[in-house]
Specification:
Blueprint: H1 3-12, H2 23-29, E1 35-41, E2 55-56, E3 59-67, H3 81-91, H4 99-112, E4 117-118, E5 124-125, H5 128-141, E6 142-148, H6 153-162, H7 178-186
């Protein structure tokens, strides 16, 4: 089996899902610096179609991502791309720094009482306490699969375009849920 297929299989068919609270230890222990990761969620997002999504351990694979992107070189001395992306952006970041967080916040707006505003650059924002509420929800409802890969962008496009259904991916996606999710995200912070 080719290295790309092995890497994809580890994300799509993991031996176990990593709890968000344990992701830093996992990526450090396995020396994952660059890679492909999958976000798996339980049934707490009822409007997201899961019909043909991959399932494992009571969760469904709804989103994949990579770190770093093809066009962003790693700066010497900075956190590894996977650590920065998973921990700083997706888990501890803001809706401004993570498209996954923005999508989840849009889907959970009513359920969790999120309020949004637009900053001077017309970017969507939430207050710190709402960001913390979103982080707590992610910790309670998500699992992560991750694998080291030196050029993860070689896998990402093929998986999003041709792989399993990924209803929370927007870029390169042809999933039927894309227009619904895009519309939800566009209305945030607008009166």
């Amino acid at each position: 089996m080719k290295a790309d297929q092995v890497a994809a299989k580890q994300v799509l068919e993991p031996a176990k899902l990593i709890r968000p609270a344990d992701i830093l230890a996992h990526i450090e222990e396995r020396e994952v610096t660059h890679g492909l990761y999958g976000w798996w969620f339980d049934d707490s997002l009822p409007e997201v179609p899961r019909g043909e999504c991959l399932g494992f351990d009571g969760k469904h694979l709804l989103y994949i991502g990579i770190a770093p992107p093809k066009d962003k070189p790693t700066k010497p001395g900075s956190a590894t791309p996977v650590k920065r992306r998973l921990w700083r952006n997706h888990l501890r970041g803001s809706v401004r720094s993570s498209t996954l967080r923005l999508s989840l916040a849009a889907l959970l707006e009513d359920q969790l009482g999120f309020e949004f505003y637009r900053d001077a650059g017309d970017r969507v924002r939430m207050t710190k306490d709402h960001e913390e509420r979103l982080t707590a929800w992610i910790v309670d409802h998500a699992g992560i699969s991750v694998v080291h890969h030196d050029a993860p962008w070689q896998l990402e496009e093929a998986l999003v375009r041709n792989g399993p259904p990924l209803p929370l991916n927007l870029s390169m996606s042809g999933h039927p849920f894309k227009p619904t999710l895009s519309a939800l995200r566009k209305t945030l912070g607008r009166d």
